[in-house]
């Protein structure tokens, strides 16, 4: 212990103390260097790179996986569902609609222009469509036929309703639609009682009316 505190040799003691201080300094430097190399005190940039708690602003961007084409197609198909096919509206053909007065023209024609007094005569009532056509219900409540001579009412189906047939006719373009109404050549009275006088010789006029639509007057002779 005394040799350490009091160096022995031919050189001065200060030389020995200087040598001991130099060795001690070298040892300290080596310890520090080894401590930095193996104790984590290395390059600050390396330490910053190895630091798990990095600044979020400098962290590498996280890539989001893009949806696959199949998933996109399925999503599009689910979002854009095909709209249901509209149910076609059933349209009634014109010829199935009931005739109104404005749907047709009415004509009344005597089958003969000259007959013998007391003879039968048929009147042909024609229905002519003014549009696409319609369905006409024929009956005494819809169709009337009258025979007049001047202002004198000779015969009418309003008094002899049985002369009007009951039928349903399709009135269409290019189709002949007619009703035959017979006249017995006699006058008529309410109730169409038999035994009425025959029509005298002269000029007579026949007219028809269907559902409020009147025909023109057609003349014929009784001789």
Structural write-up:
- Residues 69-94 have a biased composition (Low complexity).
- Strands 2, 5, 6, 9, 10 and 11 form a six-stranded mixed sheet that branches. The protein has a three-stranded antiparallel sheet with strand order 1-3-8, with no helix packed on it.
- It has helices spanning 2-5, 13-38, 44-50, 69-79, and strands spanning 104-110, 114-115, 121-129, 134-138, 143-149, 152-156, 167-171, 178-183, 202-210, 213-214, 218-222.
- The protein folds into two domains: 2-50; 95-222, Immunoglobulins (Immunoglobulin-like), CATH 2.60.40.10.
- It has 223 residues and is of the alpha+beta class.
- The radius of gyration is 63 Å and the shape is rod-shaped.
- The longest helix is centred in the first third of the chain and has 26 residues, at 13-38.
- Residues 46-52 and 54-59 have low confidence and may be disordered.
- Strand 5 and strand 6 (152-156) form a beta hairpin.
- 16% of the residues are buried.
Descriptive keywords:
single chain; Immunoglobulin-like; six-stranded mixed β-sheet; three-stranded antiparallel β-sheet
List strands and helices in order, with pairings.
Layout: H1 2-5, H2 13-38, H3 44-50, H4 69-79, E1 104-110, E2 114-115, E3 121-129, E4 134-138, E5 143-149, E6 152-156, E7 167-171, E8 178-183, E9 202-210, E10 213-214, E11 218-222
Parallel strand pairs: 2-11
Antiparallel strand pairs: 1-3, 3-8, 4-7, 5-6, 5-9, 9-10, 9-11
Quantity of strands, as a count:
11
Mean of the pLDDT scores? Answer: 79
Largest sheet: 6 strands, mixed
Structural class: alpha+beta
- By DSSP (H or I, 4+ residues per run), the number of helices equals 4
What form results from the Cα inertia axes? rod-shaped
């Amino acid at each position: 212990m005394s040799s350490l505190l009091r160096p022995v040799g031919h050189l001065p003691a200060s030389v020995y103390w200087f040598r001991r201080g130099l060795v001690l300094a070298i040892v300290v430097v080596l310890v520090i260097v080894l401590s930095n190399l193996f104790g984590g005190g290395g390059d600050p940039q390396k330490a910053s790179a190895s630091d798990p708690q990095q600044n979020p602003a400098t962290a590498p961007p996280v890539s989001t996986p893009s949806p696959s084409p199949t998933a996109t197609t399925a999503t599009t198909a689910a979002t854009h569902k095909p709209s249901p096919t509209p149910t076609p509206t059933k349209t009634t053909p014109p010829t199935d609609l009931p005739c109104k007065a404005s749907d047709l023209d009415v004509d009344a024609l005597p089958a003969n222009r000259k007959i013998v007094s007391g003879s039968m005569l048929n009147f042909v009532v024609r229905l002519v469509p003014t549009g696409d056509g319609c369905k006409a219900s024929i009956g005494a409540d819809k169709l009337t036929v009258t025979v007049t001579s001047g202002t004198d009412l000779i015969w009418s189906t309003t008094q002899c309703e049985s002369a009007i047939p009951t039928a349903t006719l399709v009135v269409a373009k290019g189709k002949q639609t007619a009703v035959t109404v017979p006249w017995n050549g006699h006058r008529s009275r309410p109730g169409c009682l038999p035994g009425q006088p025959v029509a005298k010789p002269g000029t007579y006029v026949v007219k028809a009316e269907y559902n409020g639509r009147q025909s023109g007057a057609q003349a014929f002779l009784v001789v």
